[in-house]
Structures
1.
Amino acid sequence: MPSTYILVAGDARIGNLVAAAAGTRITAVVVGTRAVADAVAASAVATVVWLGEPGENALEAFAGPVADVVAAAAPQLVLASTRPSDRVLAGAVAARLGAPVSTMVSEVVVSGDGAQVTRGVYGGIAQEVVAVTGTAVVILDGGASGTGGDAPVEEVAAVPAGVVVVENRPAARTQVDLGRAQRIVSVGRGLKSQDDVAMVEALAAALDAETACSRPLAEGVSWFTKDRYVGITGQHVSPDLYLALGISGQLQHAVGARGAGTIVAVNTDKDCPYFKEADYCIVGDLYDVVPALTRALT
Ligand SMILES: Cc1cc2nc3c(=O)[nH]c(=O)nc-3n(C[C@H](O)[C@H](O)[C@H](O)COP(=O)(O)OP(=O)(O)OC[C@H]3O[C@@H](n4cnc5c(N)ncnc54)[C@H](O)[C@@H]3O)c2cc1C
């Protein structure tokens, strides 16, 4: 049976990775707390190798020990989630293994001596399928935690080397992880003034949603921080609900929200491009629609 290794350095949400590796023997390699290792063991994996907590070491310092574990099995697949910590570890391990890395992956099929990987290109506008011979390192959405499994956890003493964290300090601006948001209220140039951001935030609060925007509102006028704009050069999001207010829906924005379950667009222009891909289209002035929705929800 082909084998897959799943690298875990963040939390234990690996449901999509386990699903992608169906039909292979899955080993999870965890750098993190014992609690994370135990939670991973509850997913449908065959075994967990726990290398301990990083402590003051950066995750890259575990690249050697993790690569040793993986290389011994020469698996077809090494999977990691899109969480920053998992990507860091996967990249460092791929370098050790000399393996190619695929990001923005939507599908993986294991073949006899490697894997076929479908991945997004040009910011997600198109997809390409590549065949990898040997070990493929693949980054895809982690998904929710699996449950019901009871894999054995093998503790392996790792000697991290090379990279130590010498200082931690808060970033100059708040980084928002829109990728985790279940609901997003996003606004574009239909908004006329920075003062009106509060109106949008009130709707977001009523929906228990994150706020986001099109690029001009973050890079043109700075009404939102740059980590809140969605699109080809911004964040790619996949909430259950994406509410697009006064956003025309040009391709560079729209591709960033194509993972959304339901898209609702509000626009005064009945011919705006977003109406061609939204699930629900409201032809209307956001200055009428937003307060009305907020009132209805509170
Ligand atoms: C290389 C490149 C990369 C880019 N990357 C990104 C990216 O990652 N993300 C991104 O967002 N953009 C990106 N852009 C910019 C993108 O092409 C668009 O210019 C941008 O998305 C337009 O933003 P918008 O929809 O808010 O503004 P507009 O296109 O100006 O649309 C405003 C919309 O608001 C509507 N409107 C006006 N008043 C109201 C009202 N009162 N109520 C309701 N609706 C109203 C209008 O009818 C219009 O449809 C990129 C561009 C380039 C060249």
2.
Amino acid sequence: MKILGFFGKGGTGKTTLTALILRELARRGDGGILAVDADANECLASLLGSGGTSNVSEMLQRYKRQREESPELTGLDIFQNLFDSLLMEGEQEGYDMLIMGRGEGSGCFCAINDLLQAVFEKTIEGDRYGYLLMDCEAGVEHIARKTSGEIHDAIIVTDASKVSLDTLRRIKDVAREVGTRIERYYVVANKTRPDMLEKVEKTAKDLGFKYLGAIPEDPNFTEVAYQGKTVFDLPDDSPAVVAAKQIVDRLLEG
Ligand SMILES: Nc1ncnc2c1ncn2[C@@H]1O[C@H](COP(=O)(O)OP(=O)(O)OP(=O)(O)O)[C@@H](O)[C@H]1O
Ligand SMILES: [Mg+2]
């Protein structure tokens, strides 16, 4: 199983790239896909057309209630049932969706992080999924909180700005500091002027990251956003869709 986490500075295109890669993997159909929306804003779910399905935060509240109401059941049984129902609710277009939600309210994310870990471990054990795609919050927060514990591959989305490229190094540094076991780092340029791509590629190579290519500015996204449509509504020859195919080819090369 391939577990991919999407990282990068705010607004660079993490959610967009997660959705584009999911669309391409679903089209190829060579393994079940679990999409995890780990950003509290739940943008990935909307872009995939899975908005409104219930999330892990709500599940946690239900779990707490059911534990009080049914003391005869073990915590694990309750968790298992709730988790399975959560996954099935999100099923459509050849993938399952898991929405993390906002945490439990102010401050503490410990319980939801524990659940996230449990979800990962459970998912890795079975052969239900060939891919797990996790759309993370901007910056390095996710790695710092260790919620990305089981991610094998980090895909960092960037443009050619200094701030965005500086994030590449910081993500690697923070991952090392907190002992995250990320094995491979990939870089994808998004919405970047062609004459600036060389800088992105060089920065990636200098850090030992594999450069996967670039997604061009695609006017069809404006239409998708305006009409509240999904990534599956983009035409097959849309520039971003075509570029995503090549990126998936390079990603699966290793
Ligand atoms: N290749 C592209 N062509 C056109 N528009 C794009 C492209 N990539 C992203 N966008 C647009 O840029 C905006 C930001 O993209 P996106 O939400 O994917 O970024 P993000 O990194 O996930 O942001 P955040 O840090 O807020 O989670 C969106 O409106 C999206 O539609
Ligand atoms: Mg996003």
